[in-house]
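Because showing beats explaining, we think one record worth quoting, sequence and backbone structure tokens together, and here it is:
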Amino acid sequence: MAELRTLFFLGKGGTGKSTASALLSLVLMEKGKKVLLASFDDAHNQSDIFEADLSDKACTLGPCLEVLQIDRDKEIKRYLKKTARNVKNSYAYLTAFNLDNYFDILKFSPGMEEYALVTAFMNLQTKYKTYDYLIIDMPPTALSLRFFNLPALSLIWIDQLEKLRLEIYKRKEIISKIKFAGKEFERDKVLSRIREIKSDYQTLKAVFEDSRKTNLFVVFNQDVLSVAETRRILDQLNSLDIGINGLICNDRMQEGAKKRKTENNFSSLPVQHIPFSSSSLIGMSALKHHIASYNLTFGEILNNPS
């Protein structure tokens, strides 16, 4: 059985990430690949493109294509509920405190959006692990970059929390493990939880960095602002040791019009062009017609191993 391959579509808002990811989903569907297309963008563009009322429950739109829309607010509530449950289990003796009130406030704290999206991503990878492709239509650049930066940033804090917890042990002379029947049992639930979270983020960081299982594509247009933002995305992801597998140029000009030489800006990466369409690419028939008219295969980027 083939391993699930995850494809992320990033880029400046309005460049055509949703259209590009929808087109590729249909190309893979026509090849008989089992595909889940998940929109992480609150703009709900996939609902408009497919003319379907999408929700966080997968909707079947083809013989082997399902599409869903992540509900970010619901994911935040789910994440906080799970976190509250873990805290209550670790601090069951603090009956005088109403932890629910604190978690009601936490949902407004910075970082909740990316934590919620990361949790949603991990759940999708588990639930749809038997599929061939998980295609994710990402939100605009700022949130997308925070999403990919979350594992590395969280590991920095978790390492410090682990050191602090061990220092508390040392200073208070607390024995962290007891021996019974030749086995060792962890007594400190907090330290156990810290190490569990650390392991989760180490795994997620490895997933983002593994180009065999995870591919990132940046969608851009041939204008100065779009090219500049694409360069910024490449630089920031490179600093995280996350590589880009290819670029998708969504052509906004008719054939024969003056175009910039995009290959000169990104000479080290393959570029897949999506030809200009004089009509809106809305609805399954319009998308399929565009694919057939230009024989779109996305082979330029899908076959790039780097």
